[in-house]
Specification:
Distance between the termini: 16 Å
Order of helices and strands: EHEEHEHEHEHEEHHEHEHEHEHEHHH
Oligomer: single chain
Strand content: 15-25%
Number of helices: 14
Structural class: alpha/beta
Length: 363
């Protein structure tokens, strides 16, 4: 019997300052695939740190090309063949899949879609292009997997009904054991409600709306809250200037990126995520696992995990007045979540379950 070989192509940079949910999934998946008898090779656009990935076979394009082009070149130069290929964070239904399947003599090709859609949908030209891609290239992909029901629906919407029969859902999951759990939701000694944001600082994450919403609050309410922001990105300086211009810079603390988020979340009472586009947010799962309820938008898969008033509060994206009303209600105590939000995550969204369902696709 010939050896089983698995290639995993991920458009995801490995970084030392970001050991997140996907990193934990990749390592756990590698272990599980090896336990099933697979030799596993991983391909990334850049590998800036290997510490967390000890024992994992990594290949890096070193930022010189796309990870797809790098993988195709690797197949050609090394004449490697694989039993299966799994992709993460790559564009669906491009010529890459057919080329990879042929060059690597791959029997089972699985494309995992983590990619969010724009708030107002794709423009008509992009819609037509997606549909054409689906028609031309869908046969090379054996399974399409969305990380939420929202994502799976949009795979079919984007690419056409030709992919419906081979499109499914596997929800993201997290390693709940690494998260420190908040014991209660009482105010700290200063009497302020402590909110936290964990996000890349770009326009689509909607943090500019949060800053505008803070300016809508009366000063006595502003004095009863504080927001700590973890993350970095192109909008950072602009957000700081916006907060200063709005007179709310004292309400915000920018902490930059941190690899200690699993321990830090429990220091806060609510996570805020005013995002415009999302598939199925690991940050939300992580916050709930730490017993920290979530205030977020109705986009993507968010409503599939957030139950209004039970483990968080939802508002429509870009609705600054709605953000302000929720913040006011939380600060005044009119809106309060006291139940343990971690129980659902432990039961339904565990890393073990996610890994097992992905491994089953290889059969």
């Amino acid at each position: 019997m010939s050896a089983k070989r698995l290639a995993v192509v991920c458009n995801y940079v490995l970084r030392q300052d970001r050991i997140g949910g996907m990193d934990r999934f990749f390592v756990a998946y590698d272990t599980a695939a090896k336990a099933k008898g697979y030799a596993v090779d991983w391909f990334f656009p850049d590998v800036l740190d290997k510490t967390f990935y000890e024992g994992v076979t990594l290949f890096s394009a070193e930022g010189n090309s796309s990870v797809e082009a790098f993988f195709l070149n690797y197949l050609q130069e090394n004449e490697k063949t694989y039993t299966a290929l799994v992709t993460h964070f790559t564009e669906l239904c491009t010529p890459f899949y057919k080329k990879a399947k042929q060059a690597g003599r791959i029997k089972n090709l699985i494309a995992i879609d983590h990619n969010p859609r724009p708030l107002n949908g794709f423009p008509l030209k992009k819609q037509l292009k997606n549909r054409l891609k689906g028609y031309l290239h869908h046969k090379a992909i054996d399974r399409f997997i969305g990380v939420s029901s929202y994502t799976a629906r949009h795979i079919v919407k984007d690419l056409g009904k030709v992919v419906a029969r081979k499109t499914g859902v596997i929800y993201n999951g997290i390693d709940t054991s690494v998260f420190k759990k908040r014991e209660n939701h009482d105010l700290n000694q200063e009497g302020k409600v402590q909110f936290v944001v964990v996000s890349h600082l770009r326009e689509s994450k909607g943090l500019q709306d949060l800053i505008d919403a803070l300016a809508l609050l009366k000063p006595d309410l502003q004095n009863k809250l504080h927001i700590t922001i973890y993350g970095e990105g192109p909008l950072e300086e602009g957000l700081k200037q916006q907060a200063k211009d709005k007179g709310g810079d004292q309400l915000l603390t920018f902490k930059g990126s941190s690899s200690e988020i699993p321990q830090l979340l429990a220091d806060y009472q609510y996570l805020i995520q005013p995002t415009y586009m999302e598939c199925f947010s690991l940050s939300i799962l992580e916050s709930l696992s730490a017993n920290v309820p979530v205030i977020t938008t109705t986009v993507g898969g968010n409503p599939e995990i957030i139950n209004e008033g039970i483990n968080g509060f939802l508002f429509k994206p870009k609705n600054k007045q709605a953000i302000a009303r929720i913040l006011e209600g939380v600060v005044l105590g009119d809106r309060k979540i006291s139940r343990d939000t971690s129980l659902l995550i432990e039961k339904e969204y565990s890393l073990d379950r996610m890994v097992a369902e992905h491994i089953n696709l290889l059969n």
